[in-house]
Amino acid sequence: MNLSPLHFCLLFSSGLFCIGLIGALSRRNAILVLLGIELMLNAANLNFIAFWRFSPNPENGHGILFVVFSIAVAAAEAAVGLALVISIYRHQKNIRLPEATRLKG
Amino acid sequence: MNTAPLILIALTTLATAAVAMAGRNLIHSALLLVASWAGIAAFYLWAAAEFVAFAQILIYVGGVSMVVLFAVLLTRNSRAELAISTDSFSRAIAALLAGGAVFGILVGAILRTPLTGSTRSPAAFNVRTLGLELMGTHAAALLIIGIILTVALLGAVVLAAPEPPEDAP
Amino acid sequence: MNAAPPAADAFLERLPLIARDMLTVWFPEPARWLLNSLLAIAAIIISFATLFSLLTLAERKILGRVQNRPGPNRTGLPFLPFTAGRIFGLGQPFADGIKMLTKEDIVPRAADQFLHFLAPVALLALSILTFAVIPFGRHLVPVELDAGVLYFFAAGAATELAIFMAGWASRNKFALLAAMRALAQLISYELPLLLSIVPVIMLAQSLSPTAIVTAQGTLPHWYVCTPWGFAAFVIFFIAALAESNRSPFDLPEAESELIAGHLTEYSGFKYAIFFMAEYFGMCALSGMGVTLFLGGWQAPFSFLEFIPSYVWFGAKLLTLLLLFIWIRATFPRLRMDQLTRLAWKFLVPLALINLLTAAFWHHSHNWSTPLQLVRWAIAIFLVVSPFLWLGRALTQTFRPRTYRYA
Fold first, then answer.
1. Tally of structural domains, chain C
2. Distance between CA atoms of C13 and B10, rounded to whole angstroms?
3. Could you report the predicted ipTM of this complex, rounded to two decimals?
4. Domain range enclosing C184
């Protein structure tokens, strides 16, 4: 089996994605769930950079442009998510997600 | 291209991320995740994406980590609660199964694909070209991102601000 | 008459390179690259550690003079027999160092041992990392980076994390509260600091410090000599004062009011390391200020170019550091609400308006000679009028203090 560097990059990013996924699914703490989602976003960025680096024409730099925009969106997502966490905390005095059921039908 | 640094970076990043996600102490988890974000920045440096690496450090290590740490400290009643109560076992098993299945599918797909990948040097794409691209071809996207960021931050402020009492004018 | 050698190749200019090559020529070719890097690191650490020790002495002596007292003047160098010390108190830094090294290093039992240890180390390491991209001289750039300015501020932003670690790992409510206050201050002033350098990057059209220095040339072309550049430099300097926890923004560990802030539970050499990191941060920010606004290593006039570039850089750096000390001796400390109000309601809007001024300046550079006066007038108006307007809004509620019982 002959693995190219691109294979390693993709394995790395899928590992990171799955760690984020497991964290987001298994934890009850809202902040940890958010951090898991951030990890998944980062794994996606990692793929963009990997495919840009090993693409036949890296001069056009679309991968980098995409990552720049994606980092900006991730920062906005983190800010809004943590504001939500704080407002959940204000209503129920803890941030355990299974207990945030006030709007549950 | 030399893969030894890549494997080292990948192992460190994955280990810190995994320990952070399994951790008992929220602050330790947040700090370990910062280490893993820094590892991702190191990967960007390895892939010759200088600008993105420094942007990653500036935004994640300097900005997002601060927001996370402030949120951790603002949403706790006592120090005892920092040690998160045990999550349910069945939930963890289910999550591990789901995550493992996704990982298996991804790894299988990656390993069965013949990816050669060209190793041309991306030297032609430097920071200057990036700036020109952002301000020229992708100016509209840049503007939209700016608007999204403004709206999101305003929304975050509104969400996090304490509500006025009921009888306020 | 012989043609003078170009300034870049003068002997004095190349002296550090020649010294380095003399040291590394004895080693085989593959090791030379590594040795050159190691030598650069060693040179930076040794020179700035020396500068740190001398700065502490200079600060105490200057503060003493300002407050009409002599300052430290007793400690001499023990290995100079005749003077028995007492040469201007030059031995004071060494005495301080020995005192700090021999003090007991106390770690609270409840503290998070590892983070408590990691915080000073991370802070010092990150603040030394920022020196890597500053062009100290024409041939003295430790690392030539395309996005050097971004690197500098990324490494600087990471130091906030170390301050949080110090406050949290101490398991002390005062340390934690002080760390939160320090972080609030650092985050607030990060914005004006970054916004004030954006015009420079816009006009130099580069993120590389070397390119920014060479874009400036001799004195009248330094960025500080333009209206927007002057405003940006002042904003940068104020924000740098706050970022390096210097008076009048030294709230995080206001020695005379608080119990040392986030350093409450630190003692011995770890405490000294925090101070070292603070001075390193101050030096790095001053170095960046010199690079971005004061022409970097360039001589002010071309006939002064026989003095090597690193001497010019050092002179400008020392001037800025003296300004730091002078300001510490002059201004009273701000209150927390005044501090954040100054950042968000004054410096950030001014820096944003300054972007417009810089854009105007850039697009009017080819106006004909009589119109140049108009250009200057418009630019100065764009800088001064928001300053006056915002300043009035900020100080509207202030009244002269009345003393009822005095």
1. 1
2. 43
3. 0.89
4. 103-363
